[in-house]
C-alpha cells in the first residue's frame, strides 16, 4: 500500500504529520480485538520513585501517556493541537480582565469509572493534593500560580491565581491537574504502585513483574463523559527492553503499532522500504528537545566560562548529522524553532564553533585546561542512540584540547534521582513539552522548584520576565520577555540546548488514526486508534 496523508495542525509553524507506506510482514496483533501498542518506555516502582502513576508525582512523557488515557482533566488539548478545550468541564474561562480568576463548570452527570459522582470538591481535592504533596519530581510547579481553589456547589470550580497566567488553561490539561477520587488517593501522601483510578476514556489494568509494569491494558470506560471519542474498546500497551525487540514484535505481528523510541536506523529503514508492504511509517510534528544540564554549584562547572566554552565548541550540525540525520535539527535555544517566541540566542552569541574563542574565554577566566568533566546520560529513556550522541560530544570536546571528558550511562530509575540530587556535573536530558508554549520550555528549568532541581537562580527571570510573559494572552506580545530570558540563558549557560527532533509511529496498515495518535507534545492519544482493512 502507498499512502500519504497531510494533516494540518492548528499550531502555526508546526510540521504536519506525513504517513508513508513501508514494508513488513505478519498478520496483525494477537490479542483479540485489542490494538497492541509497543513502547520502550519503562514503568518501574522503586524506593526513590514508588508512585510512578500518581498524578501528583508523575512527570515524564511515558507515565503521562498512561495517565492521559485514564485520569480526566478539566481541559484537554484537541486533535491537531490548538488552544485547549473543555473536557471534564463543559466550560472554562477567565472571569476578570487581569487573567487572575479562572472558573470552570463541570459537565453534568460526571462520574469516576467506579460510578462515584464527581463534584467540584473532588477537583479542589485533586489540585490541593498535588500542591500540598510537593513531590520531588517537581510536577507541582505547573500549578505554581494557583493561590486557592474554590468549590461552589457541586459543579463550579474557581481558581484564584497569585498572578496573571495566560497559560493556565494549558496547565489544566496536564495530568498533574487530573481529577482523582478521595476514596482512592490519600490527601497527604502518594499512592504507591501502578493502580490508577480516574474518569478518563479508559480504565487500566497493569501486569507487574519485578516492580515493573510490563503490560498495560486500557479498557473503554463506560462511565466516561467528555470531549474525546474513543474509536476502540481496548488497547494493550507492551513495554520492550529495546527498540530492536519492539521492531521484531511489529514484524512478527505481535504488536500493531510502535512508538517511542525507535532508533534512527529503524526509522531510516522503514522510510526506505518499498511501497508493497503493510507497515506505515508516520512522521509527526515534533517539539522534543535535547540538552545538557549543569550543576552550577559543582566546582568543575561553577564558572560560567567553562559552560560558555562548551557552547563555543560543540558542533550541533556535526552531532545531528552523525547520529540522527534528517530526524533532528540543531537547536540554538531552549525554545524550539517552531514555537512562537523562539530566538536563536545561542547562535547569536556564539556563532559557529570556534576553539580559538573558547580558548580565550577560558584563559580570561583563569581556568586551567584541560577541564576534566564526566558527561552523564541515561541508557534506557531516550533511545539507544543516546550513547552514540554522547560519544560524539566526548570526541568533539576532547579534540579541542581544552577538555578531558568521560561519559557514563546509567538506567533512568537511577539516573533521574541522582540528577535531581545534584550528583552529576553535566548531564544529558530531553524535554517533551507539557503544552506547546514557550513558557513550558523556560519556566520548568528556570523558575523556583524547577524540575531539574537546578541551583541556578536568575532573579530577573524568576521575578520579572516569567511573570511578564504570562500576563500576555497574545503570545507574540510575550515574545519580548521570552527573548530576553533566552538571551540570559545563552549568556549564563545553565543549560545547553543541542537539538530538536521529529517523532514517528510505525503501524500496520489496518490500523486507522495513527496520524493522530501523537500530538506535537508527544501526547499518546490511544482513543484515536481504530482497526480497519489493510491493503
Automatic annotation (TrEMBL):
InterPro entries: Peptide/Ni-bd, SBP_5, SBP_5_dom. Gene3D superfamilies: Dipeptide-binding Protein, Domain 1 (3.90.76.10), Dipeptide-binding Protein, Domain 3 (3.10.105.10), Periplasmic binding protein-like II (3.40.190.10). The keyword Signal applies. Keywords: Signal, Transport. PROSITE patterns: PROKAR_LIPOPROTEIN (PS51257). Residues 84-450 form the Solute-binding protein family domain. The keyword Isomerase does not apply. It comes from the Bacteria. Residues 1-20 form the signal peptide. Belongs to the bacterial solute-binding protein 5 family. This is ABC transporter substrate-binding protein. It comes from Streptomyces kaempferi.
